[in-house]
Amino acid sequence: MASSAAPDSPSLSDQAYGLLEDQLVTLALPPGSMISEGQLIELTGLGRTPVREAMLRLAEQKLFRVLPRRGLLVTPLNRTDIQHVLEARKSLERVIVYRAALNARDEQRSNISSIARAMSITHDSFEDFLRLERELDDLLDACAGNPFASSAVAPMRSHCRRLRYYFRRRVQLAETISVHSQMARLVARRDYTGAQKAVDGVIAVMERLASSIERGT
């Protein structure tokens, strides 16, 4: 008898995580703000157990801080923390693009090239760029086939997207688009050495943005 649930349907915990991660990244839950578990339940429309599981997962990823008897603190942006994120992210992304360049099938390479072309015409559309960046990340992860690297880098990408939202009026989108689309094109061409160097360019852009965070915040 066939199951009534789709095999790839996300669990309630994953749904809660996705909703809350989006609220954190887009600053709907602003850095430094306090929120209660009850408010998160109301925000997601899901039950206590999946919300708590998602909340603890986000706390492990340093996007929330659990303050006993007080609630949850949305982790403030901190220059040192972001620098640590970027240091770790660079190594993981280099692994992912290396394996993606080696392993991607022809159809996947075509899709990566399509994303690169779409990025190049987003111009000043911040939301369109972030959507395409997520699509590229997901596709590179699938091509790389290393679930350990993908799982490890996922929260670092969330921290970086949150940083971009925070400084969205300062982001030099043309430069950001250029380095991402270059990386994608190199992966599509099987140029794993060039793709790894392009990752360094992506991270360098983020490092310059992180330098905008005031020291001690």
Notes on the protein architecture:
- The structure is a single chain.
- By secondary structure, the chain is mainly alpha-helical.
- The protein folds into 2 domains: about 60 residues, Winged helix-like DNA-binding domain superfamily/Winged helix DNA-binding domain (Arc Repressor Mutant, subunit A, Orthogonal Bundle); about 130 residues, GntR ligand-binding domain-like (Four Helix Bundle (Hemerythrin (Met), subunit A)), CATH 1.20.120.530.
- Helices cover about 70% and strands about 5% of the residues.
- It has 9 helices and 3 strands, in the order H-E-H-H-E-E-H-H-H-H-H-H.
- The protein has a 3-stranded antiparallel beta sheet.
- Strand 2 and strand 3 form a beta hairpin.
- The N terminus is likely disordered.
